[in-house]
Amino acid sequence: MASKTSSRAGHTKQKRSAPQQQKQYVVAANWKMHPATREKAKQLFADSKAEAKKHPHIHTMLCPPAIYLPEALKQSRSQHITVGAQDAHWEKVGSHTGQVSAAQLADLGAECVILGHSERRAQGETSEAVAKKAKAVLSARMTPIICVGEDDRDEDGDYVNALRDELRKSIEGLEKKHIKRSYIAYEPRWKIGERAEEPLAPEQLHTTSLILKKELAERYDVKTGELARVLYGGSAGPDNAAELISEGQVDGLLVGSASLQAKSFRELLNAVATLQ
Ligand code: PGA
Question: Whose CA is nearest to atom 2 of ligand 1?
């Protein structure tokens, strides 16, 4: 994400080098269905917010379960914290038991929504549904974090086609301007949570992020591919966060388990801050 530093270029005839823009990395916390009580959620939110405040150059996004959103939104009065949801229905209102719409989330004050997470895809969420949700999230002026990732890797490289296909279908109908406002979260399913013995190697991440950008470049244009914002998720923690971002050359991380304890979240943010 671009820094808010503004350039004063052109102010004087004397030639000056443009001010160095500081890269703003993203750390998006996916709390999934944690924690167990409202009190614990309040505490975790307060702790996470306090840590995020120490790192104004990291864009911290907190995505608690929907039931905790009002509390989180009440507490989030910092321009460096964005509060969002973990799913959204594309229709504004309707007979959809158990669902919450993008419009309702936006009305509440949410600013971003994780879409197509593999744990939802495992329950039958299709890429077509993800694309509809992404459109609804964008038209409600929020930011979608569109998750894609292969189930496993095969030696023949067939996963590449599966991954590109999943991305293509998950952004069906989105325009260039929509991609600019979105994040693509690459989450290889074999590297998420307990399934993973160790995180993805940064060089594998870099290659895959280029594959996703190539798909976007072919679907839109080279610039859209180059500028697309890619996050990585899957066993990211304090020990590998900096390496994944710098060597994997991504814009930030989507973090599950490491965002659930104040200590590990603090260490993770500290690790990302070393990149600045
Ligand atoms: P993890 O989860 O960091 O616990 O692997 C990441 C995710 O599922 O978004």
Answer: 256
Pocket residues: Cβ below 6 A from ligand 1: 30, 187, 192-193, 233-236, 254-258
Q: Three-state DSSP class for 212?
A: helix
CA of 267 to the centre of ligand 1 (A): 16
Q: Which atom of ligand 1 is nearest to the CA of 196?
A: 5
Q: What is the CA radius of gyration of the chain?
A: 18
**Is 117 annotated as catalytic?**
yes
Pocket test residue of 33, 113, 118, 235 for ligand 1, highest count of atoms within 8 A of CB: 235
Two tokens, residue 68: 């905790």
> Which atom of ligand 1 is found nearest the CA of 118?
8
Q: Is 150 a catalytic residue?
A: no
131 vs 118: CA distance, rounded Å: 15
Separation CA 107–CA 39 (nearest Å): 24
Catalytic one among 125, 166, 187, 215?
187
* DSSP letter, residue 19: P
- Can you give the pLDDT of all 276 residues of the chain as single tens digits? 434 333 333 333 444 555 566 789 999 999 999 999 999 999 999 999 999 999 999 999 999 999 999 999 998 876 779 999 999 999 999 999 999 999 999 999 999 999 999 999 999 999 999 999 999 999 999 999 999 999 888 888 899 999 999 999 999 999 999 999 999 999 998 887 765 677 789 999 999 999 999 999 999 999 999 999 999 999 999 999 999 999 999 999 999 999 999 999 999 999 999 997
Torsion angle, alpha carbons of 71, 73, 76, 81, to 10: 130
By the 8 A CB rule, do 105 and 113 touch? yes
